[in-house]
Records
---
Amino acid sequence: MRLEPVANPSLWRTTMPPAIAIGSTVVIASLLAMAAGANPFSVLGLILKGAFGSKFALLETLNRATPLIFTGLAVAVAFRARLWNIGAEAQLYAGALMTVVLGTGMLQWGALALLPALALASMLAGALVLLVPALLKVRFGVDEVVTTLLFNFIFLLFISMLLEGPLKDPMGMGWPKSERLVAEARLPRIVEGLRLHWGFALALIAAVVVWVIERRTTLGYEMRAVGLNREAAGFAGIPVNRVLIKTALLSGGLAALAGFSEVAGLKGNLTLDLSPGYGYTGIIVAMLALLNPLAVVAAALFVAGIFVGADSMSRAVEVPSYLADIMLATALLLMVLAILLTRFRVVRE
Amino acid sequence: MDIFEILLSASFWTAAIRIASPLIFATLGELICERAGVLNLGIEGIMVAGAFAGWMAVYSGTGLWMGVAVAMVVGMLFGLIHSLLTVPFGLSQHVVGLGVTLLATSLTYYAYRLALPEVTSPPKIDAFQPFEIPLLSDIPLIGPALFAQTPLTYLAFILVGVVALVLYRTPLGLALRAAGENPAAVAAQGLSVTGIRMGAVIVGSGLMAVGGAFLTMSAFDSFFFEMVNGRGWICIALVVFGAWKPGKALLGAILFAAFDALQIRVQQTPLGADIPYQVFLMMPYFLSILALIVMSRRAEVPAALMVPFNKGER
Amino acid sequence: MAGDGAAQVVLRLDSITKRFGKLVANDAVSLSLREGEVIALLGENGAGKTTLLNILFGQYTADEGNVEVFGQALPPGNPRAALDAGVGMVHQHFTLADNMTVLENVILGTQPLLSPRLDRGAARTKLEKLAQDFGLQVHPDAKVGSLTVGERQRVEILKALYRDARILILDEPTAVLTPQETEDLFATLRKAIKLGLSVVFISHKLHEVMAISDRVLILRHGRLVAERPIAEVDKETLASLMVGADVSAPKVAPGRPGDVLMRLDAVTTPARGNAPGLADVSLALHAGQIVGLAGVSGNGQGALADLIGGLIAPAEGRMELDSARLDTWSPRAAVQSGIARIPEDRHKTGTIAEFDLTENAILETYAQPPYSRSGLMNWGRAEAFTREIIETYDVRCPGPGTRIRLLSGGNMQKLILGRVLEAGPRIILANQPVRGLDIGAVNYVHGQLLAARDRGAAVLLISEDLDEIMALSDVIHVISEGRLSPGFARGSVTPAELGVWMAGQGFEKEAAHAS
């Protein structure tokens, strides 16, 4: 077989493959639910209801989507420049770490000064964490996929060390967790009485800002050029390495905001289970959004919905909530294939 | 015990070889894939799947070797998915690899929960036991280290030779290396690049799964979540460190494992008591990154690694 | 040999048709090849030669028609079958694995894949005998990556011979050879004919077609438009058959050289992989003059182009712009100094395929006003500039928002011309500016270069096509293994003399003179 580009794809060709990908994901999830002895329709119904069926469910989904928007943006920005940042998890924890280091009493400021300071400091920390693999890449040609992956493990151990050492909450009854943030360091709720904090609004703003950066700024143009054709970009005079470093700083900063927002908006302290893999899930979010910053918001809501829905479903029937991860992995693999098939036709030779 | 004493103790080297074994399987698997031109980031998840599948098979009553075979077949199935998407369709090997890791991991955890819904701690199996090779195991120091291991460890060492032999001494190995170097050369000689690359990824993934199975069937006797714990990513670094050659990769795996065994032992010395244990646990990852930096300048990367081949396209 | 009706037909193509979407690449093409015969397939780029070969070799399947080898129908879409039937192909882009040895490359795929042992001994004996018989000397254990282009071609031919090919198909084999190497190749082919092989020779170089073939077939727009015994045609007839109209070489008035705009003084640059760097090169580019750089590809042209284009700096020696020494040098500095750069590969380095025309048009100038101010892009101005280029340079496209990968090579090149010429450059670096273009686009590009020269620009034209160099250049230098020959004024040198330099032979004499 051979792939042949389609010059002017029809509406049918651009819409059918993604639709089939989503459909197949649902079918596979149903089969797995049946393997668990459950009725697939009720399982899918429960997931939907658990994600979007009530005000409580919807708010839970929005809360869960918040860190995913940040990590999704972080990955989208990096992948756009073909910088393979698989280390959003480490950068997220770097942001969370900075938030608790400065926000548990070190800075005695009012909320209006403290919150922006914490956000900026978090971004700086996340940026620095990705700067190391980025420098190794441009200086020594070390593949950033492996280094960012390994950094995730290193950084989590580092956090664990701090939580059992200098950052340990003396009142924590031996659990490895940090002290709680001071009141001024907590992100308030957007509407009083609704369990949704300003981190979500910040995530939406970040998505718009990233979109503006990509489409309207010189840096965004450079990032896209470097990502699409590094050789041509370098020939034209675009400082490729500098652009990659700037991209890394932006990407790491965005991922760190997820950590800031989780700690300051939701948890109030730092523990080792702050993130159930938001950094890795950000890759799925970014890919499903085709790296478009605005679409990242929609993709994050979809992914968060599946997680929240699957959690609530697995409490009701005997189907493990890992079904959500399977659905996302399947959707990811089928979607990249589907996108390819919207642009190429398969020719049998 | 100081470091010198540790290095001279047989138990240290025995542990090092044991720790190296799963890495050898998985590194060889990754090496085969990359030599044919495909980066397989599914390795981490495939190891998880292999660890579970082999162990589960034995727990359900099959023999140990049957368990190894089951793990291998499961790994090959994920290899099939990976290679279908990356070879004929030429999709991003990064994205597909991470997707396969996620798929394999989540399917494994799902299957585990389905198979053992009630348990709080996972059941144990009768794992592979060390088999002392007569005479050879009596050699001081290296005897127990090399010749009193489980059969799976022996298999790992034998496989290094087999893979090297196949790569450099058979027509198939020649074709495989050429596919990673210049797929057009393979196609021009009437061979199928798609077939060779898919075959390499499928077989390589099978070996990765056996590497995972080593953890549940030889190193330990039970399956835990997070038990692979980044070993797959370390194997990718080991392939680079080994300059895509089986012998050097073996050396890298043993060096790495020796270091790992050393840090475990130093933790128990007075020196280790003053340093947080996390520092020691970080060391293997730092070592991998260091290896990548050192090797980055001179490594002979297969020229067509991560370059999809589309027939008739120029 | 030609016209010997008794000879057996070894290869027959019967009304082959191949379509790619709406494009008809081959339109009912038929041909037959007799034993011991050399036929030439002549045609412009895009005439369908390579497609036809790929069908014959089983890499494409034809939509209609069939292929017969030695009277047996060849199953479509199966390279293996073509090889087994005795068809050997020497591809235009070598299909060799660089980090493997000559022997390994030759025996790749010749032994059953699942056989337990690679038999090197017998293979080596056979290879050495073939090399002897056909005069194709190469060391079997040399890494292919360390061979010269000419030697690699020998390996390609040996690959075919090793598989007992009876029919050799050579796709543009001389494009990468010096005139002398071409002679060697022809000698090998003549030996092959004596031993009963038959040859299909693809080229667009007329004198070579005249020199080696018995019969010539001409393809135009996918259709076979003429078939002639070589004895009955001359070069002019072939040329007009090839393009479908009378072609006359453009009359070029000599340039009027002005001041030196750029000067290289004893510049040396490091080697790059298999290609040499520059070795002690001195060169002056005068305003109002075209300097042609002839040479076989991979002899340092890349290093010189990168040097002038700002991608590398001299390791030793001086580089001057307007008599001032250059200390910092980068692509952006080159663009800002008024150097127009037409890159060798417009797909890989000249443009970004997924960018639209506007984004490609400002690729070199995006960071300056009016396109960018304090970090923000002004897309309106960029689009206006692109429309101007489309208008002035006659870029055929749906609009500035079209992705550039959808444009033809000629239109892509016109956009690049517009991008670099609109600013009124003082120095033009044209690296293979017409490669792969049809005659119309070639004439357009050449016209633009001449016009720029007459406006007072200094032009450096790098090309592997000696005819192009001789037609346009006011001064010709030859580059060989990174060394630069003295300059030859227009009309003072013959192709044969340049060929001696291209083969690296003039330099020794020059050195002997000097010592």
Note: The first strand of chain C starts at residue 9 and ends at 20.
---
Amino acid sequence: MVRSFPTRKLIHQSQLGVVDFESEDTWICATCRACVARCPRGVAIIDIMKALRSVVVGMGAGHVPDSLRVTLKNIAGTGNPLGEAAEKRTDWAKDLEVKTFTKGTEILYFSCCIPAYDPNIKRVARATASLLNKAGVSFGIIGARESCCGESVRKAGNESLFQTLAQSNISAFSENGVTKVVVSSPHCYHTFKNEYPELGSNIEVVHFTQYLAELIREGRLKPTRETNLKVTYHDPCYLGRHNSVYDEPREILRSIPGLDLVEMVDHRENSLCCGGGGSRIWQETKKGERLSDLRLDQAVATGASVLATACPYCMLNFEDSILTSDRSDVIKLKEISELVLEAL
Amino acid sequence: MARIGVFICHCGTNIAGTVDINGVVEAAKQMPMVVHAAENKYNCSEPGQALIRDAIVEHRLNRVVIAACSPRMHENTFRKTVAAAGLNPYLLEIANLREHCSWVHGDGKEAATIKAMELIRMAVAKVARHEQLFPKQVPLTKRALIIGGGISGIQAALDIANAGHKVVLVEREPTIGGRMAQLDKTFPTLDCSSCILTPKMVEVAQHPNITLLTSAEVKEVKGFVGNFEVSILQKTRKVDHTKCTGCGICWQKCPEKAPSEFDVGMGKRTSIYIPFPQAVPPKPVIDTSSCRYYKYLRFMEEKKEGKPPPQCRVCEKLCPVNAIDWEQKDEILTEKFGAIIVATGYKPFDPTIYSELGFGRHPDVITGLQLERMMSASGPASGEVTRPSTGEHPKDVVFLTCVGSRDEQRGRTYCSKVCCMYIAKHAIMLKEHDPEVQCYVFYMDVRTVSKDYEEFYKRAQESGTIYIRGKVSQIRQEDGKLIVRGEDTLLGEMVEIPADMVVLAIGMEHNPGAVELAQALKVSYDVNELFIEAHPKLRPVETMSDGVFVAGACVGPRDIPESVASGGAAAAKVAVLFSQDFLTTDPMVAVIDQMKCGGCLLCTKVCPFKAIDTQVLRDGRTVAVVNESLCKGCGLCVAACRFGAPNLRGFTQQQLLAEVTSLWQ
């Protein structure tokens, strides 16, 4: 265990109206949904956490953690959490044959800000685009007109910024005639699929693992290269518990010849969180309190040489955990698309 | 020509204190077709009724209006009064001058008097159009069907049989006894469950008024109260029970084993078997899915490659009375009944969906019912509680409450009522078996609501059981122990308990097939597929379907005393029904004019009593027909029909229209 988080106390304080908004507890929840999925009383705990934070952010009832404040400012200014220029959004695709989305393109690939800008995680977007190319999929990107999906912004309590981002993306989609979008991030997936429709969006949303599984099933991609890797798969909370996508990532991994898929102690519905949801990815987590460290222990305990996942936030956190715990020679971190690309 | 008499009641000062009775009498005399109007201090008193009877004779009245209290109070009284004077009792109408007028208009005498006159004018207009109505008498089959041979069904069967009526008890399993037979001890007295149950089971088998059909299911129900026609599927047992003596040689010698349903996976049984030694009837059935001979037959039929398995047939060779019958087929029996009691009970909740608890993954995580079988002296372990993984005696045992109960996310929303008590029982029993055992209970709330139950819970605590308020989030295996991790919400801290065994207090759920049975019986059921009683407080064993009663846990979680009580209560209701030789049906029901019926059958959908059948006429038209025995006269079909085909006797459209139009004439 890393630390205790008094969920029940926060909910009860909310019922009584005596919340301590200055408390650090307001910002601890990673919205992993384990509590909501198990709450016998059906309490909407995540919505309540979101509401508490919106009182802090919107009405100034307490202190917003510094790193989060900076990130929200970045997103408001540049449309991405890293504060990078919008026109650099497509730099990851420079030397790849990735077309700009035009009318008639079948699929929009929405990479998420982290794979677009983070030097380390760019490899996710690059692998994904290469796979789409190899399968001969008609796809494109819209680059500078994209903004952060706003999923974590909303969980951080900044509803007005979320609305701005969502409207901007929805109009970018409709102006370009997008009808179907493939996303790399389960966070984009969640908000496009479950939250944007209320704001007028009606595009089809597919997570990359779902799309990839379909391509492999149809025989458009054939992982043929034999590997003898022992791989364990980490269920991202927003793909698993939030959206019940458990099978497709495993189906893809099992389709790779020779790959030995092993499960961690806690998996599927009981998967542990990497600690990056609910805007935690943009906040400092003290060493010793990081959930990804616990999860990495579970992954190493399986004896796997590769930890596979399907979420940019999980990638960031596990990269960090592997480095700080000095285990890069024990276990490698790979996104599912990287593994498939290597197996072609 | 109608000759109407109006009798206005003072009801002491109840009506007369607010309404000008003399004025109303004078007004009534002026109304069309009224030949006599009189007042009376109390119409319902014997002298009051005598005045009415005399007036009917003297004035040759053929219609009567009683202006008094609510018809719910005295309509029947006055029907008898007019019948005594030789009139058809339905040529009567009540004008409610008390509840509808004087009681609610105490502050305005003048207006109340005018309203009283209007109410009487309406009643006069209506009664002029009344027709003679005659109740029907329907014969009644004094034979009860009881579905389900658990403790509720057994109690109901014995009570009805002892009242002198014939009973057929249908049970799906090969033996009666139900869930109670699986239990070791009963709370809070710690009586041995089978010691108090099996004498009742034997009594059922020996009772001259009871026919027992085991391995049987109800398939179809036709008819109505007093006259049900029920199709019962008698499943093949491959053993001729008319020949079998229950000597036991077959199940002692059968070489094939299968997991015992009765022992919920904690033990094995042979392929030809009786579920437990005290089973009733004590005669075996063959489980064709595990029987070697049937495996051989399936092998030959599928023409598989290789050597066929042995034919076995040991039971057939050894049976001294040639009772094994390989050719025996399923059979449908059709029987007539006057009343039906549904006592189909419950099934324990399947905890596999709570994946964090590891049931099915960790062998030492078991259900309360499995522990019950382990503890039972006649069970597969002869009463010795051991860890399934190692066979050692457990020292640290953790119980989890509300598995499948009180859970809006993954289980049932209701409290299963018995789990808190059976956990307390298990904890006390385990401590008695082995004083070194330490029990822990993770609970949401402890609910002990009947006589001596709270004291029993106290006893469990005093025996050293530690109660921890909170839910368990994870059970993992470490060094041969189960690490149970949960929150102690009173401390606000996470706790981890290394346990040898974890017992899940699984709740109760409807039995499979409950909905199909409810539909066949025309009984309503709720979102949890539990049967709904006619009134939760005042008619707890009746249903909205006349002649069909419910008992036991098929209505909702119940413990043994409640199940026995409801079985007895349902039996009493059946005995009351069977005390009559004929059933009298109320003539004030709907009739459908077949000439007007368009065959849309909307009425069959709106009828809450499923009282409307369909009929195909000789010209090929489909029309709706009211089953007068089921109709309650609610009038929904009349309101729903766009053709105006149904009419409600005693409240026909013509009568109601006359009532309303009289107001402005």
Note: The longest helix of chain A spans residues 159-176.
